[in-house]
Amino acid sequence: MITKETAKTTINDVMASDSFGIEIETYWQEIKKVKEPKVKNDLDLDWLEALSHFFSDFGQVLIWFFAGLLVGFLIFQLIKNKQWLKQFLKPKKTKRKPPSELFGLAIDKQSLPEHISDTALALLAEGKLREALSLLYRGALARFVYEQHIEITDNLTETECAELIQQKAPNNESQLFNSLTQTWLLFAYGHQSLETQKVADLCQQWRGFYESESVEEQ
User: Fold this and answer.
1) Does 156 map to a domain?
2) Could you say which of 28, 110, 116, 126 would form a disulfide bridge with 139 (CB–CB 3.0 to 4.6 Å)?
3) Alpha carbon separation from 149 to 144, 145, 210 (Å, rounded)
4) What are phi and psi of 126, to 5 degrees?
5) How far is CA 83 from CA 70, 73, 76, 80, 145, in A?
6) CA dihedral for 156, 138, 165, 193, sign (positive or negative)
7) 8 Å CB contact between 176 and 206
8) The domain containing residue 200 runs over which residues?
9) Least confident of 9-18, 27-36, 166-175, 204-213
10) Is residue 148 assigned to a domain?
């Protein structure tokens, strides 16, 4: 049993000890992780990466170089073939319907007989010189427009038409048409007298030039 004196003695001993009255302070300190030294690879591949970049840049230069050559070649060809370029860029003309009348004269097939020279000679025998000459002239125009597909517009004069035929038709045919045109203009607009023999000669020339084959077949 602890007596009063024993307890007092024990208390005095505790208070006299070195541990009594000491304040203990606790704190945390961060300890940084020490980086391990990087082990250097014995195989250095930096040169391979540099070489890859070099070929990549060089390849782009080559692509632009050949692209420039191609563009230059195309421009050269276009300049060299500028006639083809003009033809390509030239707007396409719409095909016109052949006229049924020129210079106030009907030239459609329905208005012309099958044998023009024979009909013209028959008219000439009746003294109808104007009708005979008109028939020969209209028949020639119809052949140029419908058979040879020469584009004769209605804004041309008879003389301009003769010049166009001279460029488009064979020489002998253009000479016959020029003679028809001059004779028709002198008679229709120049009010000059028309000789029967002149019209007869034109009928024979027409027959020999246009209807000789059909006559031989008959």
Assistant:
1) yes
2) 116
3) 6, 5, 16
4) -85, 0
5) 21, 17, 13, 8, 29
6) negative
7) yes
8) 137-218
9) 27-36
10) yes
Q: Residue 107, exposed/middle/buried by CB under 10 A (0-12, 13-18, 19+)?
A: buried
**pLDDT tens-place string over residues 66-118:** 788 788 777 777 776 766 556 656 656 566 787 888 888 888 888 888 888 88
How many domains does the chain contain in total? Answer: 1
Does residue 86 belong to any structural domain of this protein?
no
Mean pLDDT score of the chain: 76
Retrieve residue 143's tokens.
Answer: 């052949």
Sign, CA dihedral 17-20-21-27, equals positive
Q: Which one-letter amino acid corresponds to residue 125?
A: A
Are residues 159 and 182 in contact, defined by beta-carbon separation less than 8 angstroms? no
pLDDT at 36: 58
Residue 185 lies in a domain: yes
Cα 183 from Cα 175, distance rounded (Å): 12
Strand partners, 102: 105
Number of residues written out for the chain:
218
Question: In the predicted model, is pLDDT for residue 213 greater than 60?
Answer: no
